[in-house]
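A quick aside before the break. I want you to see a complete sequence-to-structure record at least once, exactly as it would be stored in a machine-readable document. Don't worry about memorizing anything.
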Amino acid sequence: MKQFFIFLTTVVILPVFNSSFASSHCGFFDADCWSQKSLNPKMVVKNYNPDLAFSGTTLFGLNKKTDERAIIEVDMNGNIIWDYVVPASMSKSNKHNELMDVKRLPGGNTLFNIRGSGIYEINTLGEIVWKHLDKYATHDADRLGNGNTIYLRGWAEKGEPQVVEVNSAGEVVWQWDGLDEYDIEPFSDVFAEGWIHPNAVTRLENGNTLIGLRNFDMLVEVDKEGKTVWSQKFLCEKGRTWRRRGVDGLHDGDHLEGCNLHEPEIQTNGNILVASHSPWTTYEITRDGEVVWEADHRDVGFTSPRSRDVDRLPNGNTLIQVDNVLYELTHDKQIVWQLEFPEIPRFSPGKMKKKYEDEPKSFWKQFKFKQLYRAQRISPK
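That is the input. The structure line, written in tokens, reads:
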């Protein structure tokens, strides 16, 4: 019998700014009003080709090293048209309370999650209209067509829910813990930032759920009963990943090369777009595991392997995140838009320290922000 966990959800409208700021009723495009709260990150647009890029705005979240966090929306020229600084009360000034997933909902509200806190929905005035508190909520949160919200619990331990769906009142209506099929060797003893460390979830049109299992280097589709009906295995040839997690030879048989899969996205043709580390590649694969399109970040000039987000745009281009860069790539792999963040390190913290170990303290002061995680291109109305 499945055990359901109870979480706290509040459906209210509360001003998240101080009373004087909230009472001014800033409009959606009142830049002067919002700018007093902005973190003002440095951003540089490169390689912009208006004829080939998919025009719209781009929404993303930033985490500052001073534990400040902000959601920012920019136009194609990198101008901030809307931003929202996350109140300290949401993040509790904890270095692990990262702002992770950020999504603009169809009605204009914004849904986001903060590790160690929960999931929040705000309107364009920055007022909380819904929240669901769960300190394990991480990586990915989606508002479903029926009004429910499905999200991940990336750092959850074995035996706890890994994926949870709640209704608007915060009641758990579905969850998946992976125990029935994966509490066996060699999966059962894996542990690295949680047991499975799921990092992506999508509810499919057939009612099944697509989940990225980072610690198993797998993508799986599970049905309503939680049974795996499809999976794609990946193998990290470097071996570093599984030595760190205590597993050798996890997968036998057919697999694709890749580690630490991020953000699998189902396409209209049934294919799946997914970001991989080692190789530093974005794959589009069929359900049979055939690669029909791929793009290696190094082939277009990027030297960091950490890609956490890939989105196929309506015109067929692909929006890709690689550490401190967002770039838009055509099908024939031409960069037609690029947004760089000079204040975010270009490599992982460990690699940065090794690469620049001889640099003085003044060198590190330029990196005011910790990471860029995910982004969304929003179609013009």
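Two observations worth writing down. The radius of gyration is 20 Å. The domain at 8-378 is CATH 2.120.10.30 (Neuraminidase). We'll return to this after the break.
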